[in-house]
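User: Design a sequence. Structure:
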């Protein structure tokens, strides 16, 4: 197809690839400047529209629809702001069956930095308070499923998972010792941890291993039933691992910035490797963040040009590894203009935004 070139006041954008049928996926794009100014665009019907920071907020880590927080505040009927009561709003997800809100009380004096507050909102609101083992514990991410919500954290000695039963709100604490794995240190990034079929899996390229033959990536896998632990090193830098078709798919890159989608069986033996063909005259393309999402056989995420304010919305067909949609976003003012902070993809169900799964 012909390249579609359009522009806004701040952004030029070009559609390089469009092999999608009509899409029910929407995505707010949250931009920010070093002066503290913000701007939101909405990708909808494969077009870019002006939106507003009144409609979408970026409280800390991800961009969310602001009306979700309004609904929660109305249900709680608070005298103070919700941030004063429960601290920093970290994560939000609408699964279609319930809305999930996760707060970290690091800036709440009463909790003394030792609590996380989790709210489930449907017809009514229900809350769960998790007491941290230590005030130094950081929240490393979460996972929402139909039956349970997982909160990921840890200490220098162990990985800690809090499993919340959605129906009863009972909390189970799962401890996995770091000493089971053949590494010294590892950074837990949001979006790089999940539990699937009773397998705890953490993938990253940010780890320490005292060996001159250190690999670029590592996958830590722990069977919650058999207690078996595996450490799998990879030659590639790992961005994201997804469970898929009784195995796994891995989004990664090699040392020359070639991006790959690799397919593994459930024992993490490589089945197939396909190069993702995205090139730009502006420089090397890299994967932005680890928060890619999956929906109906496709991967949704963002990439960027190293060192420049040029970003891409990318949709990849999983079975063929083909890029089926590619939108380039180029800032008109590369030094003083808006920088893209985050993009979240949602299914639009008659105006109700349902999160695409990150796992």
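Assistant: Done.
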């Amino acid at each position: 197809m012909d390249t579609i070139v359009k522009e806004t006041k701040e952004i030029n954008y070009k559609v390089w690839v469009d092999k999608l049928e009509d899409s029910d996926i929407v995505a707010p794009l949250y931009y920010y400047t070093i002066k503290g100014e913000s701007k939101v665009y909405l990708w909808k019907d494969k077009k870019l529209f002006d939106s507003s920071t009144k409609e979408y907020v970026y409280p800390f880590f991800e961009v969310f629809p602001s009306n979700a927080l309004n609904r929660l505040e109305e249900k709680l009927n608070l005298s103070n702001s919700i941030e004063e009561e429960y601290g920093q709003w970290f994560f939000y997800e609408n699964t279609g069956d319930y809305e999930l809100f996760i707060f970290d009380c690091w800036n709440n004096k009463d909790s003394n930095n030792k609590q996380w507050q989790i709210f489930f909102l449907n017809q009514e609101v229900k809350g769960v308070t998790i007491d941290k083992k230590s005030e130094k514990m950081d929240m490393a991410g979460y996972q929402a499923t139909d039956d349970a919500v997982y909160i990921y954290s840890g200490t220098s000695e162990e990985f800690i998972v809090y499993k919340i039963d959605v129906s009863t709100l009972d909390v189970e604490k799962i401890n996995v010792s770091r000493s089971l794995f053949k590494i010294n240190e590892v950074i837990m990034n949001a979006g790089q941890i999940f539990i699937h079929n009773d397998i705890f899996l953490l993938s990253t390229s940010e780890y320490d291993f005292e060996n001159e033959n250190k690999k670029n990536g590592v996958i830590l896998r722990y069977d919650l039933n058999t207690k078996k632990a595996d450490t799998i090193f990879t030659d590639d830098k790992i961005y994201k691992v997804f469970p898929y078709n009784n195995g796994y798919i891995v989004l990664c890159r090699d040392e020359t910035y070639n991006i790959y989608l690799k397919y593994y069986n459930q024992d993490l033996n490589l089945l197939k490797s396909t190069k993702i063909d995205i090139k730009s005259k502006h420089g090397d393309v890299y994967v932005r963040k680890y928060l890619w999402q999956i929906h109906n056989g496709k991967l949704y995420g963002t990439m960027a040009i190293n060192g420049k304010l040029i970003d891409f919305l990318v949709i990849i067909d999983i079975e063929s590894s083909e890029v089926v949609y590619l939108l380039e976003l180029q800032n008109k003012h590369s030094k003083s203009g808006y920088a893209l902070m985050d993009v979240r993809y949602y299914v639009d169900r008659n105006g109700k935004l349902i999160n695409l799964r990150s796992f």
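The longest strand covers residues 323-331. The chain has one domain: 4-355.
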